[in-house]
TrEMBL record:
Residues 67-402 form the Peptidase A1 domain. One of its GO terms (biological process) is proteolysis. Belongs to the peptidase A1 family. GO terms for molecular function: aspartic-type endopeptidase activity. InterPro entries: Aspartic_peptidase_A1, Aspartic_peptidase_AS, Pepsin-like_dom, PEPTIDASE_A1, Peptidase_aspartic_dom_sf. The active site is at 85, 283. Disulfide bonds join 98-104, 328-363. Its EC number is 3.4.23.21. This is rhizopuspepsin. Keywords: Aspartyl protease, Disulfide bond, Hydrolase, Protease, Signal.
Amino acid sequence: MQYKRASLALVALAAGSRADANDYITDKIMRVSITKAAPSQDLIQGVDAAVVIPGGASLADLKDVSYYSVISLGTPAQKFTVLVDTGSSALWVGSKACNLAGSCNDAEGFDPDASSTFVDLAVAKSFGYGSGTISGSQVQDTFTWGDYTVPKQDWVLVNNEDASAQKLQKKQVDGLVGLAYQAGQNANPNYKFPTVIESFIKNNLIQKPVFSIWLNGTSDNGGQSLFVDGGEIVFGGVDPAHYKGDIVTYKVIDPYFWGISLSAIQVGKTSLPTASGVTAIIDSGTSFIYIESNYLTTQLLPAIYSAIGISPVPATSPTYGNYQTVDCALVPSLPDVSFNFGDGKLYTLGWRDYVIPVTSTVCGLPFVPSGRNNPNEWLVGDIFLRKFFTVFDFAGPYVGFAESISSKGFQLPASVPVQTQPVLQTATTGTKSGAESVLGLSGLAVLFTSFLW
């Protein structure tokens, strides 16, 4: 694969390069649409009905916090709703027996007795995520996603979900499909698992070892909780209809995750350099942006709040899921927040891109402490991916970004009075009733962090 490179002699691991878009455009691709969930059966029906592209399937979006797709397993096929996660590698679905016993909390549950092609490899597997732990057995069966079928795909049939994982499932979804890089020589063997994208490549189902993700936002659907047209995954290339401008690529520097170097975050016109060695892990299974705690509390948040006249940084409140909040009237005065991946190019999120509705008057910020054992591993989730069309290229390996043709972003409630000039305030906390909640989800970032811990 050829790339057009500027300043190739500069720091190769950090500097971005403009890829020739023709390298990613091929005839042999498969489009999979993304959805933002509802109860599984409704989601499956809605996603199936949304397939309008020959050779395609669908993805869905739940209130801009998680993105799902429908896959099938077994012979005859059993359909399931799964979270699409570039931050882990395993495909897993809860078993029917596990759900009947109350040890799983999925929408459906796979029945191995109903599949003539099911093989239990009898290898115990357990995976811990930022939002819970699952355990089960490594198995094989026929796997189908969109138009592509793999006869003997390895996956995990789950026989136990801990309380946190069950809270995530909520009988709405069935599991997770992992799309991590994991091709590096030093990838953690405890994380590695045969991915479906690896199977697509090995079985020559796609022409190039690439997939791309375009995420849409619920604001394009009037803010409804279920957005069937939640986005699209293309395996084997890109869809030029979903981005504009150049695709700029960055070298993957992590052996397992789609991790690239992050040199600074800029708030307004003020650059806040990161420590040496910070890796931004591009993770579709994470809703928000997870940042090392000291950098977050001493640099990023003070810069954001001072731009709207608030000092010191207000304390978080359990009432609002322990996230940073701001009066919605001040939202239009919030500064741009930009990411610099080492080449000086800024990937900018305006307030419409990053503000989260909490109540009719309280708005949230998506920048939260990572809690990772490795303080240099930061997670860049869907807040960023909605703004920037993303390419995942195994051949480089690279992650590439282009400006997305996507959501209009967050819209302020009509009842909120807009205060255009910042006013110095003392940080306060408040309370909210369930009726006030716009988002309707407690502990949102915890629930939707499907990153391997």
